[in-house]
């Protein structure tokens, strides 16, 4: 059995948000990077047999915002980060953790099913992964509502972060 220990020096863990509501044109679709995380992937032969990912929520950093009425300023990025940490209840629950419970492989595609712990709640989560000789590319859709979280909103709800957040991870094989 082989084990990969991965972190920010191995690749990138990104979150992408959408905007909903009648005033959604005013909002930014955000790309957020998680600067502190750790993943362990255990391998049996060519297939992963167990995966665990731990993310330090306080490490979130707003990279960019697309759309919106004006470009995203530095001050807005700071405010967005603060609002996101409040939404995630990061002071009380500083980490998000995913642990696989089953893994199905079909060619280079792998489906991880497991448990995601976020904001004091646990829920089933599926992650689709593409495996190559030297890298892994994973993607999952995480819904605020599945974890009792209320997406940030403003203008009396006319503009709010979409319930579903796209999470992606791209890593290279450790040397």
UniProtKB/TrEMBL annotation:
Xref: InterPro entries: Lipid/polyisoprenoid-bd_YceI, TTHA0802/YceI-like_sf
Pfam families (UniProt xref): YceI
SUPFAM superfamilies: YceI-like
Entry-linked Gene3D superfamilies: Lipid/polyisoprenoid-binding, YceI-like (2.40.128.110)
Domain of life of the organism encoding this protein: Bacteria
Lipid/polyisoprenoid-binding YceI-like domain span: 3-174
Family named by the database record: Belongs to the UPF0312 family.
Protein name from the UniProt record: YceI family protein
Organism: Mycolicibacterium nivoides
Lineage, highest ranks first: Bacteria, Bacillati, Actinomycetota, Actinomycetes, Mycobacteriales
């Amino acid at each position: 059995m082989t084990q990969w220990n991965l972190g920010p020096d191995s690749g990138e863990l990104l979150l992408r948000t959408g905007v909903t509501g009648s005033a959604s044109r005013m909002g930014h679709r955000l790309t957020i990077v998680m600067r502190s995380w750790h993943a362990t992937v255990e391998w049996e032969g060519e297939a992963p047999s167990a995966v665990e990912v731990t993310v330090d929520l306080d490490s979130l950093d707003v990279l960019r915002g697309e759309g919106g009425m004006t470009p995203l300023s530095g001050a807005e990025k700071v405010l967005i980060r603060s609002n996101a940490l409040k939404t995630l209840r990061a002071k009380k629950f500083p980490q998000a953790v995913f642990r696989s419970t089953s893994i199905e492989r079909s060619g280079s595609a792998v489906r991880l099913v497991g448990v995601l712990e976020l904001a004091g709640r646990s829920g089933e989560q599926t992650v689709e992964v593409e495996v190559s000789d030297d890298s892994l590319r994973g993607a999952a859709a995480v819904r605020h509502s599945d974890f009792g979280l209320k997406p940030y909103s403003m203008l009396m709800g006319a503009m709010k972060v979409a319930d579903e957040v796209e999470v992606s991870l791209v890593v290279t094989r450790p040397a």
